[in-house]
Specification:
One of its GO terms (cellular component) is mitochondrion. The chain has 1111 residues and is of the alpha+beta class. The protein is built from 41 helices and 25 strands.
C-alpha cells in the first residue's frame, strides 16, 4: 500500500527488461498467477521466460502443488517436449511463375481427350467427369508451374538476378584465390560490393512493396506482421507429447494423431428423433437448374491463393481456366443437383493441426484447432448451394429475422445494434434489461444429420437440395496432418465440414428452432451462427431471472432433440444486482463452478475486490503509521466518479522507520453532502479506524473552498488543536484562480472601477466584453477553424505554401500544425492555445485574408458587384469585425504568453511531492517543497508588478491592465493568508539556504511580517519539539565529506544563492537547539531535534489534488 520515494527506479529491473528485449523472451507464466503466498495475501513475483523458438515446445507452465516443500514460494512446473526432429521443408508450387498459355492449352487438350461431352446420367458418370477435370488441371499445372527447391537457408524474394550475381562473385573469388593477382582481387571486390548493394536494394524494395500492399488491402497489415515475425523461422517439425484422459502422455506420432482425431471428431451425441416419424412437411420451394453466371460468380469470388486441398489445385488455376471449364462444370453441377449426389472427390479433406494461441497447457488436445483444407472444385459447388439457401431464406423468410451471420446484410453489427436499441428502449420505459449469452459446445462437430435434414424439409427447402445435402454429409473422409506426421484417411461420420462455405448457412437452419423457442412476449433472441443471446425485459431483475430460467429450460429441450450440449463455463449473464438470491439460484443451476470460483458475481465486483484488498492490508497500514517517525500530514479533496458518487480521497504523507518519505491513500469515503461538518466527520472516521493518535497528526493541505474551513474546525475540535493553524492552502488552486483572473477576470466590481468611470456592467454586457478580449477573439477563430473541414484544409494549405517556400532543408521537413482548442476548466489550455497561435501567426492572418476574399467573391451580387447587406448579415463569425485580431491584440497575446509561461514554470516546479525523481536529464533533487511556496509567490508577484508598469502603456484594450491587477490581487490575497499556519515560515527558517536572512532582506519593508513569522515559528518549536527526547541515530563522521546534491532546474535558485550576511536572529526565550541553529547552522549534525522538526515540516505536500485521478 505504501509507495516510498527511495525505490522508484530499479537498475536491476531495467537490466532485466534489456535482457528480455535482446533475447526476445516471452513470458510463460500466466498473468495473475499467484507464485508467492504468505499469511495475509499472495502475489506474482516468480516469472518464467523462454525464447520464441523454445516457447513453441512448451507443453505447460503452471503451479504444481505436488512439488510443494513447505516454502512460501510455490513450485512452477514447466514441461518442454524435447523430441526434436529435423524440420521437413516441403516443396511448394511457384504459382507466380506459372506459364498461363501452357496451362490453358494443356487443360483444354486433356479435358477434350478425357471427356467425350456426354451428359452424366448416374453417380459413376459424375465421378468420372470430376476425375477427368482434376486430371486435366493437374496435367496443366505440372507442365506450366515449377516446384520450389526450399532449404533452411532460403530467402524470400531472392530472384534470378541475385543468383547470377552470386555465381559471378564465386567465380571471381576462386579466380583470385588461384592467381593472387591485384587485378583479379579488384574485380572480385567490386563484384562483392555490387552483390551487397543489390541484395540490400532488393530487400528494401521488397519490404516497401509489402508495406504498400498492406496499405491497400484489408488484411495486408496482418500478412505483413506475420511475415516480419516468421521470415527467419521454420516451424519445428514436432507436436508436443499429448495427454490421454487418464493423464498419461503419448509420444508416438500415430498415438498423437489418434488423440487429436478423437478430440476433433468426437462420436455424435444421441439426438431425440422421436418427433420426426410421421411428420407432415409443407410443400417445398422449387429449385431451378444452376446457371452459368452462378458458377462464374462463385469461382470469381474465391480467393486465388488460398491453400489447396488434397488435389493441389488452387482457385487461381480455376480463374485462369474458367472459360475452358465452364461448360463441363455446368453439366457436372446440374447433374449433381438433379441426382442428389455429391462426388466423392468433393468430400475429401486435409485437416491441418494448428496450436491455439495463449493456452497454458499444450499437452491437452483441446489446445489445438483443426483447419480443413477442401478441394477447390467442391468448394465452388458448395458456395453455389450456400448462396441458393441464403437466397431462399431471405426471399421466403425461412429463418428468424434476428438470426444473423452466414447471410448478406446480416452481420454481427446488426445483432449488436438491435440489442442496444432494445436495451435503451427498456431503460426509457423504466424497465430492467437482462441478457443471457449461450454457447454450444462443438457446434459443427455435433450436428445430427437426420435432424438437419428434417429441419430443411420443415422449412420448405427443395427436395433436390435436401438430397444433395444428405449426400454431402455422408461418407466424408479426412486426412489429419501434423507437423511431423500425416495420418491415414479417416472416415468422418458426424457433424458438418469445418471450413466449407456451405456449413454456416446449414447451421442457421439447424438451430433456427432455438431462436424461435426463445422468442416470447418478455424476451428477444438474437443469434449469430451458433451463439445465441437472450434478452429479457421486465419490471425488475428478479422477474427477469424467472423468465430466463424458463427460457433456459426450452433451450435444454432443443439441445436434447438436436444432440447438442451447452457450455455453462462460457455463459455470460449480465446483471447489476447479482446478489439477488433468485439470480444466485440460476447461477448454481447453470454452473455450480461459477459460484465456487466467484466468477461474474456482479457489476460491483471491482468495488468489492478493492474493499477486500483494503481490509486485507489495513492492519499493515496501521502498523506503518504507528511506527512512522515524525508527523503524519493529511490532504483530502473531492473526487468524482462516472456514477455521480461524491467521494473524498484522503492521502497521508509521512516518513517511515528508516526516515524514507512515503505517501499512501488511507481512505475514499463517500460524502453525501458537501457540508464542512460532513467532510470533517468522514476524515475523522478514517483516522479513528486506522488508530491515528492526535499527537501524530501534522498539517492539512486543502483547496480554498470555504467548507474546508468548517471541516478543519470540526477536526481540530475533535483532536484537540486549532484546526485553522493546521490548515494549509493548495498552491495549485491559488495559481489557477490567479491565472483565470489574468485571462478573463473574476470580479465585476474591479471592472467597474477600472473602466474610467463607466457604469456597472450587466451580465450580458460582461459576457460580450469577455468575448471581445484578444483571448476570446482567438478562441472564436480557433474553434471555427477546427470545426470546419473547409477551414481546416485551407489552413493546412496555407502552411504548406510557407513550408515549400523555405530555403533550408530543416524547415522544409516541417509538417503543418493544428491550432489548439482551449477549454473552460484548465488555464493551461489557454496558454497552449496562445502559444500555438503565436507560432502560426503568419499562417492565421493569411488564412483570414484569403478566406475573406474567397467568401466575398462567392457572395457578390452579379448586378452590382458588391456584397449585399442581407448576405453581410450571414457573414461567418470568423470574418466579423469583432473577432479580428489587430496588431495590438497580438501584442497583448505575446505578453500574456510570457506571463503565463512564468505561471507554468512555477506550477511545474511546485507540482511535485518533495521526492527525488528520475527525469530526462538524470536524477533530480526534490521539487514541490514547502519552502518553495513563499518563493513561488514572490516570483509571481514580482513578475506581475513588472507587467503592471508595462500595462500602463496599453490604454486600449483595457482588459490587459485589469487582468494583471486582478491576478496580482488574487495572489496577494492568498499570500497574506500564509500566516494562517506556521508551516511555511517554519520550513523556510529551518532551511540552511534561507533561515531568517531571507525574510529580513525580502520583507525589509514589512518588519511586522517578519516579527509575526518569528513568533509563530518559536511557538511551534516550544510546543511541539523542544520537550522531545533525543533519539539516538547513526550520523556522519566529522571527517566524512557531505553528500553532493544533484543539480536540477529550479526557477527559485537565484533566491537560494543569496549570502547570509545579516546577523542571525536569536530570541532570548529560546535558549536551546533552535537558538544554536540560528546562530551557527554548521552545527546541524549536533541538533537532532531541529533536524526532526525540519524533516517533519519539509515532507508536507503543498497540493490538495496530488492524488486526484485525471478527469
Amino acid at each position: 500500500m505504501a509507495e516510498t520515494g527511495a525505490v522508484l527506479y530499479s537498475p536491476c529491473a531495467q537490466r532485466l527488461i534489456t535482457i528480455i528485449e535482446d533475447f526476445q523472451l516471452e513470458l510463460l507464466t500466466e498473468p495473475g498467477t499467484p507464485t508467492h503466498r504468505w499469511k495475509d495475501g499472495e502475489s506474482t513475483i516468480d516469472l518464467t521466460f523462454a525464447t520464441e523458438d523454445l516457447t513453441r515446445h512448451v507443453t505447460h507452465c503452471k503451479i504444481d502443488g505436488g512439488l510443494d516443500c513447505d516454502s512460501d514460494h510455490l513450485p512452477i512446473d514447466t514441461a518442454l517436449d524435447w523430441e526434436w526432429k529435423a524440420a521437413t521443408v516441403t516443396r511448394k508450387r511457384l504459382w507466380s511463375k506459372t506459364k498461363i498459355p501452357i496451362l490453358r492449352q494443356i487443360v483444354k487438350d486433356r479435358l477434350h481427350q478425357n471427356y467425350d461431352g456426354m451428359e452424366p446420367k448416374n453417380e459413376g458418370d459424375i465421378d468420372a467427369l470430376v476425375s477427368s477435370i482434376v486430371k486435366a488441371l493437374n496435367a496443366g499445372i505440372d507442365a506450366s508451374t515449377p516446384w520450389s527447391n526450399p532449404c533452411s537457408r532460403s530467402i524470400a524474394g531472392f530472384d534470378q538476378e541475385c543468383k547470377d550475381i552470386c555465381t559471378e562473385v564465386q567465380q571471381l573469388r576462386r579466380r583470385w584465390q588461384q592467381t593472387r593477382q591485384d587485378d583479379d582481387y579488384e574485380a572480385y571486390r567490386q563484384a562483392r560490393n555490387k552483390k551487397g548493394r543489390h541484395i540490400q536494394k532488393l530487400l528494401r524494395n521488397s519490404h516497401r512493396q509489402r508495406v504498400e500492399e498492406a496499405s491497400s488491402a484489408k488484411n495486408g497489415l496482418w500478412k505483413l506482421v506475420k511475415w516480419a515475425k516468421n521470415r527467419q523461422d521454420i516451424s519445428p517439425a514436432c507436436t508436443p507429447a499429448l495427454a490421454k484422459p487418464d493423464g498419461t502422455l503419448v509420444h508416438r506420432p500415430e498415438e498423437k494423431a489418434e488423440l487429436l482425431r478423437q478430440a476433433f471428431f468426437p462420436p455424435p451425441c444421441q439426438a431425440d428423433l422421436s418427433d420426426i416419424s410421421g411428420y407432415q412437411y409443407p410443400p417445398s420451394i422449387e429449385c431451378p437448374d444452376i446457371t452459368l453466371p452462378e458458377i462464374e460468380k462463385a469461382m470469381r469470388r474465391a480467393a486465388p491463393n488460398k491453400a489447396p486441398g488434397a488435389d493441389g489445385i488452387i482457385n487461381g488455376v480455376l480463374h485462369q481456366t474458367l472459360d475452358i471449364l465452364l461448360p463441363s462444370l455446368h453439366k457436372l453441377f446440374n447433374a449433381c443437383l438433379q441426382l442428389g449426389y455429391c462426388p466423392q472427390h468433393f468430400k475429401e479433406a486435409v485437416t491441418v493441426v494448428l496450436r491455439k494461441q495463449g493456452k497454458d497447457d499444450y499437452a491437452q488436445p483441446k489446445s489445438y484447432r483443426p483447419i480443413a483444407l477442401l478441394n477447390t472444385l467442391g468448394k465452388v459447388m458448395e458456395a453455389i448451394m450456400a448462396n441458393r439457401l441464403a437466397y431462399l431464406a431471405d426471399v421466403h423468410h425461412l429463418l428468424p429475422s434476428r438470426h444473423t451471420g452466414g447471410r448478406k446484410l446480416a452481420s454481427t453489427e446488426h445483432a449488436i445494434h438491435f440489442l442496444l436499441q432494445r436495451i435503451h428502449q427498456a431503460w426509457s420505459e423504466g424497465k430492467v434489461a437482462s441478457l443471457l449469452l449461450l454457447d454450444v459446445s462443438g457446434a459443427y462437430d455435433n450436428v445430427s444429420h437426420e435432424r438437419l435434414l428434417h429441419n430443411l424439409r420443415k422449412r420448405r427447402v427443395s427436395e433436390k437440395i435436401v438430397r444433395w445435402v444428405a449426400s454431402f454429409l455422408s461418407d466424408r473422409s479426412a486426412t489429419l496432418k501434423m507437423q511431423e506426421y500425416t495420418a491415414p484417411v479417416t472416415p468422418i461420420k458426424t457433424g458438418i465440414a469445418q471450413g466449407s462455405p456451405f456449413s454456416p448457412i446449414l447451421y442457421l437452419f439447424y438451430n433456427a428452432d432455438l431462436i424461435e423457442a426463445c422468442m416470447t412476449p418478455e424476451t428477444e433472441a438474437v443469434g449469430y451462427i451458433d451463439d445465441v443471446s437472450i434478452l429479457a425485459v421486465g419490471p425488475s431483475a428478479p422477474r427477469n431471472c424467472k423468465t430466463l430460467k424458463a427460457i433456459h429450460r426450452k433451450a435444454q429441450d432443443w439441445a436434447t432433440k438436436h444432440g447438442s450440449q451447452f457450455s455453462p463455463a462460457k455463459y455470460e449473464l449480465s446483471f447489476s444486482f447479482v446478489e439477488n438470491p433468485i439470480l444466485r439460484e440460476i447461477f448454481d443451476y447453470l454452473s455450480p463452478s461459477i459460484s465456487i470460483q466467484r466468477a461474474n458475481l456482479s457489476a460491483s465486483a471491482i468495488r468489492y475486490k478493492i474493499i477486500e484488498e483494503y481490509n486485507r492490508h489495513k492492519q499493515k497500514v496501521i502498523e506503518v503509521l504507528r511506527n512512522s517517525s515524525g508527523l503524519l500530514h493529511i490532504s483530502f479533496d473531492g473526487w468524482t466518479s462516472r456514477n455521480k458518487l461524491a467521494l473524498y480521497g484522503i492521502a497521508c504523507f509521512f516518513r517511515d522507520e528508516k526516515d524514507r518519505p512515503c505517501k499512501i491513500i488511507i481512505g475514499v469515503p463517500e460524502a453525501h453532502r458537501h457540508f464542512g461538518s460532513t467532510i470533517g466527520g468522514e476524515v475523522l472516521d478514517v483516522l479513528h479506524t486506522l488508530g491515528v493518535s492526535p499527537e501524530k497528526i501534522g498539517y492539512f493541505t486543502l483547496d480554498n473552498a470555504e467548507n474546508n474551513d468548517t471541516a478543519m474546525d470540526v477536526i481540530g475540535a475533535e483532536l484537540g488543536f486549532n484546526g485553522r493553524l493546521r490548515r494549509g492552502r493548495c498552491i495549485g488552486h491559488t495559481i489557477n484562480l490567479s491565472a483565470k483572473s489574468l485571462l478573463y477576470g473574476r470580479n465585476t466590481d474591479a471592472f467597474e472601477q477600472q473602466l474610467s468611470g463607466a457604469e456597472a456592467l450587466s451580465d450580458a454586457e460582461y459576457a460580450r466584453w469577455r468575448k471581445k478580449v484578444p483571448v476570446g477573439k482567438l478562441h472564436n477563430i480557433v474553434v471555427d477553424v477546427r470545426i470546419s473541414h473547409r477551414l481546416t484544409y485551407f489552413f493546412k494549405e496555407v502552411q504548406m505554401e510557407e513550408i515549400n517556400r523555405a530555403t533550408t532543408l530543416k524547415l522544409r521537413w516541417k509538417k503543418p500544425l493544428k491550432l489548439i482548442v482551449d477549454n473552460d476548466t484548465r488555464w493551461l489550455s489557454q496558454l497552449y492555445m496562445i502559444r500555438r497561435a503565436l507560432r502560426l501567426r503568419t499562417s492565421v492572418e493569411l488564412l483570414l485574408i484569403r478566406y475573406k476574399a474567397q467568401w466575398e467573391d462567392e457572395n457578390r451580387s452579379k448586378r452590382t458587384g458588391q456584397v449585399t447587406q442581407a448576405r453581410l448579415a450571414k457573414k461567418p463569425r470568423i470574418l466579423r469585425d469583432e473577432n479580428q485580431l489587430a496588431d495590438k491584440d497580438w501584442e497583448v497575446l505575446y505578453h500574456l504568453e510570457a506571463i503565463l509561461t512564468v505561471f507554468e514554470t512555477v506550477v511545474k516546479t511546485l507540482e511535485g511531492d518533495g521526492h527525488i525523481r528520475k527525469r530526462k536529464q538524470g536524477w533530480t533533487g526534490s521539487y514541490g517543497n514547502i519552502w518553495d511556496v513563499v518563493l513561488g509567490y514572490e516570483l509571481l508577484l514580482n513578475t506581475l508588478e513588472e507587467y503592471k508598469q508595462l500595462a500602463a502603456g496599453f490604454p486600449d484594450p483595457e482588459h490587459f491592465r485589469i487582468g494583471i491587477n486582478l491576478a496580482w490581487d488574487k495572489l496577494d490575497e492568498y499570500y497574506q493568508r500564509l500566516d494562517e499556519t506556521p508551516i511555511y515560515y517554519t520550513a523556510m527558517a529551518l532551511h540552511p539556504a534561507y533561515r531568517w536572512d531571507w525574510f529580513d532582506e525580502t520583507w525589509s519593508h514589512k518588519p511586522s511580517w517578519v516579527k509575526k513569522a518569528k513568533e509563530m515559528v518559536a511557538d511551534v518549536w516550544l510546543s511541539e519539539y523542544a520537550h522531545l527526547e533525543v533519539r539516538t541515530t547513526s550520523s556522519r563522521g566529522d571527517d566524512e565529506p557531505p553528500a553532493k546534491r544533484p543539480r536540477f532546474f529550479n526557477p527559485f535558485e537565484k533566491n537560494s544563492r543569496q549570502p547570509s550576511s545579516m546577523p542571525a536572529y536569536a530570541a532570548a526565550i529560546i535558549g536551546d537547539e533552535y537558538q544554536a541553529w540560528q546562530t551557527d547552522p554548521r552545527v546541524t549534525g549536533q541538533l537532532p531535534l531541529v533536524s526532526n522538526a525540519s524533516l517533519s515540516h519539509s515532507l508536507w505536500i503543498i497540493h490538495s489534488w496530488f492524488y486526484k485521478p485525471y478527469a
